[in-house]
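Lab meeting, action items carried over

1. Structure of the two-component assembly. Owner: GW. Status: complete.
Input record:
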Amino acid sequence: MNEAKIREKALELVERSNIAFLGTIGSDGGPEIKAVQVADREGMSAVWISTNTSSEHVGQLERDPRACLYFVQYDREPWAGLLLRGRVEIRRDPEARERLWEEGCEKYYPEGVYDPDYTVLRLIAERGKFWQFGTKVGFDLP
Amino acid sequence: MNEAKIREKALELVERSNIAFLGTIGSDGGPEIKAVQVADREGMSAVWISTNTSSEHVGQLERDPRACLYFVQYDREPWAGLLLRGRVEIRRDPEARERLWEEGCEKYYPEGVYDPDYTVLRLIAERGKFWQFGTKVGFDLP
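Predicted assembly:
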């Protein structure tokens, strides 16, 4: 597959994934992983996640914004995996809050769109790695 | 749930997971993730993976052995996630090679159990974090 075809397949995987795995650097410098819901995408160049301000990975990202998101399809053939590496912007501005807010969010954030426990994360991807058929192809982003 | 019950559920998740997500520290210090096949387990205190010596995460683990494995069940209720954090031993000794070797491995390692591209990873877990029903419980290991 040429790079254009790889990017197309990687983008498809990002677009159809509701769940991804967020990698962060823990307080001792070791890696940590947590499953997150993908709330919005800007192609492959940025991915938006809403989360609790009080959650551990927000504190980790405040200390070190380097992060990655891993997307995977292993429930159907062909198996595919995509790693997006970059940095996370921690957003609490009205534009970001409103961008991801939808009906039902008040179940998690009872004070509404300005609930202090509501935080938006935006991973800005710098590099992608796509695995399929036992091979890996890396590419720069955006 | 008390800690004994949490540990029991976490162990069940490790035992029935064939796939897990390996977190490592990349060459620039940022986190990386890759899906791996779980080859063997020692309860929750150690997890065995076979991999290619030439694969990128082996080089990363040679530089920095701090790693994690994330196990997840999101295809059925109740959703559950488990993070095991610790250090990876890179093993190329006969005992480790033979422990994970099985019929069909020669497809990946044509030179057999002593193929130089065959490497065994053993994550020694120091700490677990289990998520279920929106709450997280941490515990020390083993």
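2. GW to write a short summary for the group page. Key points so far: Strands of chain B lie at 19-25, 31-37, 40-42, 46-52, 66-73, 80-91, 118-132, 135-140. The radius of gyration of chain B is 16 Å.
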